[in-house]
Amino acid sequence: MNGTHAMLSHFPVGFWALATLMILVGAFLSGRLAEISRAALLPVLILSVLGALAAIIIGFLVWPMEANLTSPLARNHILMAFWSLGIFSMITVLVWKAGDAAFEGNRRWVLVILALTGGLMFSSAGTLGGHLVGASTAFSDVLGLMGWEVYTTFYSPLWVIAVMVLIGIGSAVVGLKGRRTAT
Ligand code: HEM
Hints:
This is Heme ABC transporter permease. The protein is mainly alpha-helical.
């Protein structure tokens, strides 16, 4: 079943790469191509999330949990897979709820920042998958430049988590205020 994971993992990676490109085109270009990118984004995002769920489920079915958790490389791979899924699920909900309005004005930056962050995460997940099968790439060195050593468990310092929580609370407050002003 190893081959099934390798085969299925192409779906989220391919759809996430396409969705990231469509978000950039939809956010920064005008004309027919941008319109098509915005209109077709939601189905691509839904397929990407379904593909990721399939790759993750098969991953947990194929390899025993003890083996996954013993190797820092596998732990990092799984961590990046879940971060990618989380970020692209968030983008999917945003685009689903807001539709074309998600691209209006400064709102587009939320999509762009999330998509670029998600892009970094799924590239890392794929790179670490390659490492696991003995096919490392130059992208591992890019991760190294950012302070992520692929053979050591990735971690976020406590202050980063605190900043992320504060950004989350701040965003919720801004959103609630915006909703009250609109009604
Ligand atoms: C979005 C989710 C995921 C993506 C995109 C992904 C991607 C990949 C890729 C591209 C490879 C290299 C495959 C090859 O070239 O043969 C790989 C290998 C691997 N993945 Fe994942 N993966 C995901 C989730 C998971 C999960 C959840 C687990 C474990 C529970 C896992 C465990 C592994 C292992 C152990 C390998 C090495 C396979 C081998 O030694 O043959 N992956 N993954």
